[in-house]
Automatic annotation (TrEMBL):
Compositional bias (Basic and acidic residues): 24-33
Keywords: 4Fe-4S, Heme, Iron, Iron-sulfur, Metal-binding, Oxidoreductase, Thioether bond
Protein name: assimilatory sulfite reductase (ferredoxin)
Domain Nitrite/Sulfite reductase ferredoxin-like: 96-159, 341-406
Source taxonomy: Bacteria, Bacillati, Actinomycetota, Actinomycetes, Micrococcales
Amino acid sequence: MTTTTTRAARPRAGGDNEGQWALGHREPLNHNEEFKATEDPLAVRERIEQTYAREGFASIPSDDLRGRFRWWGLYTQRRPGIDGGRTATLEPHELDDEYFMMRIRVDGQALTVRQLRAIADVSERYGRGTADVTDRQNIQLHWVRIEDVPAIWSALEEAGLSTTEACGDVPRAILGSPVAGIAAAELVDPTPAILEIKRRYIGNPELSNLPRKFKTAISWQWDTVPEINDVSFVGVVHPEHGPGFDLLVGGGLSTSAHFAQRLGAWVPLEEIPEVWEGVCAIFRDYGYRRLRNRARLKYLMADWGAARFREVLEGEYLHRSLVDGPAAEAPRAPIDHVGIHEQKDGRVYVGVTPIVGRVRGTTLRGLADAVERHGGGRIAFTPLQKVVVLDVDPAQAEALVTDLDALGLPARPSAWRRGTMACTGIEFCKLAIVDTKDRATALVEDLETRLADVEPQLGQPVGISLNGCPNSCARIQTSDIGLKGQIVRDADGNRVPGYQVHLGGQLGAEAGFGRKIRGHKVTEAELGDYVERVVRRYVADRQGDETFAQ
Ligand code: SF4
């Protein structure tokens, strides 16, 4: 494990104490830093198993309940019936329900049918059948009781799954291509690097107290939203050294969006874990810990710039120079893997589309049955809330598509179903102001009728993202139509749920953040009319193959 040297980097302009450990500022400057300094949050697992699961919800002290539990993928969910307009006015304990959201990390790996069945069993037995596919390839369960957590861990771990560091100020689940190892154009499968990072560092106390969350994406192709992760490795061919990975650092959305910056370095597959550790350790040591809303790596990167970041990485952490390298090629449109596609071994993979990632335990069980009936045997999730069945015999593909369609998982979805994403929203999230999942589902069904005539002219789907609050769990700033939940005034002056609109964001080759149009807000009730107007105008006015963002 790398440890930082004492060579001091220049403090930020102004020289304020930002709580950077490497500059000697070890005293905790906020409550989160205090409870992390008191004890490694990973230690809470023993108390969950030995005490809280036996004595019940009331026995859990606040720092464990709202703090350390996250290190094991557990958040209290929102108490039902609390109006979104009251979210900001209530104390945390007033928003807490006695049930938990539990996040299962997948780390870009394909699941086996057995693992899928284990998740379906846990969902049905302990989570009232809930199971959402998130935009970080995790599965989220809801309605989990503290009494059941040890049994859930035991069932998941027996199947080779875990919730370790699924939330909290830690390295979160690593995004990986759902088609790693099988994609026709892939020159190097980065899966061994993902597995090695997981083996060495996840659950490792050396990296379990970061300033805030740390997101990673590793893929041969540009299908893991690398520009908005804290650290990303994307496949590229070096003219002299051959296939390797381009290194990007410091991306993230939330309330202040930043794209990751290239360090200009080329990293071979076998060096990814070491370089990843160096970047993560810089974040641990130099990351800002004073204010939670400035604690992501993107703020340090914005102050340092890519050249200085690389200098510190090479000089203080790797103790060697990295090889200069070319930029990875970004696609013009998002790669979502929906439909039937050839693998390099002659088989095919089939990408299907749950609406905004929402499935049920019963859906996962049906998916497992269908995969067993038609071969394949492996299933992956995508960062765009899609599901991909891998390794399918081409002769079985259409039968599989028919079975998945019957489960509500179409391989040939409408453009609206394919392009719409939504965060957890008011149903379960304590920060939410408005509903998202149900609203987005209704919107998709509405648009499928209203805009059936223009759909064939679209070319690529128009991306629509719904967030329940100013955070950006559904990536509103990089969507064609980004909708940020807030309370707005309707035509009669009443305060009602609605959205601030961001228009024209995109990822990939022409990445840019959507424009927040001042005063441009829409109520929930007006949403269908609004999206129809915007899309019809886009279709009528565009020149050639101009995208929505252009
Ligand atoms: Fe919750 Fe806000 Fe994230 Fe939605 S965007 S899941 S409401 S924090």
